[in-house]
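Lab notebook: predicted structure, single chain.

Context: the supervisor wants predicted structures on file for every construct in the current expression panel, including those that have not yet been purified. This is the next one on the list. No modifications to the sequence; it matches the entry in the shared construct table.
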Amino acid sequence: MNNLIRIVTFGLLIVILINPSIGQEQEHRDLFRKWDRNRDRVLTRQEVPAANRDRFDEVDENHDGRISWQEHMRAFQNEREPRQRERGNTGPAALAHWKHADIQQIGIRQTWPQEPDGFDRTAIVSQPKHARGKLPVILFFHGAGGNAAGPMRQWEFLTYDCVVVSAQGYRKTWNIHGEPSKAPDVEFFKQLLNQLETEFPAANLDDVSLIGFSNGSGFIHRLLIEVDEPFSKRNFLLGSSLIEQQYHDGSFWTPTKDTDRYDKKATPKSGRMIAYFHGTNDRVVPYQGGKRGRFPHVSALETANAWAKANGYRGKPRSLEQGKSITDSVTALTFAGTDVAFYSVDGGGHGFEPHQKDVRQIVKKLLNQ
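Prediction complete. Output recorded below exactly as produced.
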């Protein structure tokens, strides 16, 4: 028996030496089991060691706030076979299998202290092949650690009837406060709209909707505060409240020099449609406010009331008890005289898990109105 065990063990060792990826794959399997402390076969952000969390949003393909066994192993496959990976591709090749839309990538060159020699910023543009006349435009802004292809894949149903643009953040983040990116993102956004107007005649820039996820939602907060001219008809903020640098003492603030310091009072343009979604169990951007890492956030309810006031609401701050249940998991709070609504997702995590479908259906309904 001992001889048999030695023979089998030696045979496995030979296989691993001939094909090292087998041994590496086992290491990844062992890591998953080690990190999955409660044995529920998914990894939360808290279960992943701090040194590995910078890739969490990239590996979490469906942005539900959890990494499944399959997502974990696909990330390993993407690392092992970088030339063959599709799911990890951040460019148009990730969507090359689409039959209903033409996919392009556009570029905008910018220069700033991090990139003194210039850097080509990019965005993926999807245009339905059946396009006739002007079409509504949807702009996606991914979360930290994500990429432009991710929202396109997850929200593909929107690409059949709209020109959909998904922008790529520098170093996979949007510059709000404390991110790796210090890029001039607000200017990038303005240039992106100009390029759409020039190069995509089917894009109706009078009918633009913005959809942001987490860090990308935080970037939309910046745009709503800092850009005066009309640029969007609808704004969907998913999973990100204002940070205290942007809103405190009853006022909005904007940076005059860089996002390290918000030092100038601002009055956001009123009359905007804002749909703000937040999960009550969000452990990344706390629903009740407080610090995410080093940077404190305003609570979800205070964020909603702040935007309502900025857009013409004159009543007392509203509470969730004054809202209306629209699904088993979602309560909608509206504000008289405004087009601002707060959608509280009961039990929802940072990616609204397990109620992602409810959120997507509500967004789809609002886009169709």
